[in-house]
Every structure is written in C-alpha cells, then in structure tokens.
Design goal:
With 128 residues, the chain is mainly beta. The strands form two sheets. Strands 4, 5, 6, 8 and 9 form a five-stranded antiparallel sheet that branches. It has one domain: Sandwich (Immunoglobulin-like), CATH 2.60.40.1470. The protein has no helices and nine strands. 0% of the residues lie in helices and 70% in strands.
Amino acid sequence: MVQQVTQGIKISVITLFEGTFYKNHKVHYAFKYTISIENQSKDVVQLKSRKWNINDALNTTEIVEGEGVIGKKPVIEPGETHKYSSGCLLVSPIGAMKGYYTMINFTTTKEFKVKIPVFKLVAPFAMT
C-alpha cells in the first residue's frame, strides 16, 4: 500500500493484478486499484475531478482526465473516508500510475489539488 497526505486529505492505494486477455490481437494486462480518500482535515470537502498519468514498461503514457470518480463526486465530512475501486489495462506487465484529485473546501470555497502518490502495477510473473 502507498499513502500520501495533502492538505489533510490522506490517499491510500492498494493494487491487484487481475489477469491477461487478448484484445485486437494484442495481450493486455488488467489491474485493479482500490483507493481510500480519508478526510483528516476539519473542513468538509468534495472531490470534483481527477487526472491520471498511466505509464507502462514500453514507455507509453496515457493521460486520463474527468469529473469525479466512477461517476460520483463524493462529499467527504471530517473524519470520513470515501473508498472506491477501478482498473486499467496495460500492454506490458509492469507500469505505474500517479495523478491528483481536484477538490473544493466547503469552508473556504477554494479549490485545491490532492496528490495521488505513484503506485506500481506489476504482474506477479514479471517479478521473477
């Protein structure tokens, strides 16, 4: 598990290799990641958007941006945690993701960025 705290928002990430499959005559490696967003601040916050940089061992980078996470823009009260799972496909058995969430602080009405730490995506057989 990797963790990072930015302005009182703690991000924790756990990853899981889900397997391989063929798509368009190419092998793809499927990974699942589960993210916990814990509000350790004294203010109510809302996650508005996210930006991901997804890299694989073949030096390919995919940038993914959009509103919310898995169709939601959660409001997170102080002391509460929002948890969700998602996934990605790579064309190599090793990669990494990093990024940030844009959030709004309901007390100050200001937007701020919360760093998502770099986390590795590694198929177990690639470690031998």
